[in-house]
Amino acid sequence: MARMDKAEKAQKKALKKANKEPGRFKQMWQVFQMTRKHDSSVVWYMALSLVGGLVLGLALALWLSSGNVFGTVMWIIAGFFAGILGAMIILGRRAERAAYSQIEGQPGAVGAIFRSSLPRGWRGEEMPVHVNPRTQDAVYRAVGRGGVALVAEGPQSRTKRLLDDERRKVARILPNVPITTFYVGPDEDSVPLHRLPKTLRKVKKNLTKPEVLAVSNRLSSLGNSLPIPKGVDPFKVRPQRAR
Fold first, then answer.
1. Which of 22, 25, 41, 124 could form a disulfide with 114 if both were Cys (CB 3.0 to 4.6 A apart)?
2. pTM of the model
3. What average pLDDT does the chain have?
4. CB 179 within 8 A of CB 165
């Protein structure tokens, strides 16, 4: 009986260890590995940030604490941590870009952006408001201080009609609200997936916060044309394990 209890405890312990989430440093290492796989230049940018921080710290030490050993050491340490901070910021931005590059071109990629990366002040649904069930081309809608943004996912030759139909429908209900359209797809003049949040952030502000809420509530009555599976979450993409 005692042996069975020990075996059961050992099994539970092993199961708990297997299901345990990786630590922060392990997660950072996984993110770094995934990013380096898709963007090898990230190593050089991070190294440049670290070296730049050290050089800056040393320069400030020689300028502000010349002859003061304690002050010199503190400035160098501060420069080192500044370099690490810069490297982490670079890694975060490059990791986001690498993650989105893995889902770019897939149905629902714009929905993933809408779910996790919409700029502050914008609200939108990860489900499209208009979709072609045959090609999976879709139109997504967001509302913000810039008015209504319609984003077509797919080649312009196939999505232009979808986008124009949605634009007319919104304009009929909200005739005085600015409508901005974007294309995310393989065309040269389309917006790259990873730059969509930045592009929305640049839209000129025309509405107040109460007006944004009113427009959002008004558009919610339109509903969606046809639901499709939810978009891929790029932040849940894990790097492949080395064999």
1. 124
2. 0.65
3. 81
4. no
